[in-house]
Specification:
Layout: H1 3-30, H2 42-67, H3 72-102, H4 107-113, H5 116-137, H6 143-168, H7 175-216
Helix pairs in contact: 1-2, 1-3, 1-5, 2-3, 3-7, 5-6, 5-7, 6-7
Length: 217
């Protein structure tokens, strides 16, 4: 198999991981609005799928480096792919944890105590969606849009921290539930951060990858 085909296979697998993460995120957050106490289970299934793809990425990247004489751009490409793979797995674990915690938080109470939580979830979805599109299209120009969306996440997260602090000290508030909400917010923040990191990795490697293809032509 030609080196370009190996590159394409690795890109496709990372794109699949990004798509699975987007699906896992949607399953974790959307199901929280109307389900009973039990987690949906779909997030865990998607996480398992991501682990399977990650194992394929590890094997494919190793073969990529062993079969072809690596130049600097090849090493950077393989390192970026493996880094994205690791980041996406971290985000998938966070999504699975959100899925579990949402089952322990009554939505009416959450909206009353920390109204910014839904807004934060929406902002994080924008980051995840932009990242998934960037990885699928191998598009480094998306890094600015992802960074802008992540800035919005940071702003909402700061507002949410204030709401959590105010809710915890209210006598009528269930402090344990409020702290679970804050944990969910931390996990949302982590998903946004690793999604942005994937996009930044992509932007650094594409130029050198394209340069390598020109040199080989």
């Amino acid at each position: 198999m030609h080196i370009d085909q190996h590159r394409g296979r690795l890109r496709d697998r990372i794109a699949l991981q990004a798509t699975l993460l987007e699906g896992a995120y949607v399953a974790a957050v959307a199901a929280a609005a109307d389900r009973a106490d039990a987690p949906s289970g779909r997030t865990a299934m998607l996480h398992d799928d991501m682990v399977d793809v990650a194992q394929e990425v590890q094997a494919e990247a190793t073969e990529f480096l062993v079969r072809f004489r690596p130049v600097a751009s090849d090493l950077q490409f393989a390192t970026t792919v493996l880094g994205c793979c690791a980041d996406l797995q971290v985000a998938a674990v966070a999504a699975a944890r959100i899925d579990t915690l949402h089952g322990e938080v009554e939505r009416r109470v959450a909206r009353a105590a920390v109204p910014s939580l839904d807004r934060l979830a929406s902002c994080v979805y924008v980051v995840v969606s932009l990242m998934a599109d960037a990885v699928a299209e191998w598009d480094p120009s998306a890094v600015d849009a992802v960074a802008e969306a992540q800035s919005e996440v940071a702003a909402v997260r700061e507002k949410l921290r204030g709401e959590v602090a105010a809710a915890v000290v209210r006598p009528e508030a269930d402090a344990a539930t409020v702290l679970r909400i804050d944990t969910i917010a931390c996990l949302l923040e982590r998903i946004a951060a690793v999604s942005a990191a994937c996009t930044r990795r992509l932007s650094r490697v594409v130029a050198s990858s394209q340069g390598s293809l020109v040199a080989r032509a």
